[in-house]
Sequence to fold (108 residues):
Amino acid sequence: MLRHISILSLREDVAPETAQRAVAECHRLRDEVEGLVDCTAGLALSLGDGSLARELAIPAGMGDLAIVLDFEDADAWAVYASSPARRLLVEEVLHPIVAERRAIQYEI
Fold:
């Protein structure tokens, strides 16, 4: 299996509803990408009022949105990388709200 993790920092002007929509759109990939075994996405605890992040002493600035995708194998990831579902997610949902992106892929 291959895992793909993206850590995204959002632009400061992104509304909470827009960030939540991005999470929901990431979860839609489960039904649209063959070879995608699991998909999770979530917003940082430091977003919103940040009370839980403060309680747990989680520092801000480590990223705002995480996406974790598990694929059957590297070939499945390659199919995803050029898929219309990914292109739509990146171009229409993520690109307008992301300030910075970091990603890694590794075998699990």
Observations:
- The CA atoms of residues 11 and 99 lie 5 Å apart.
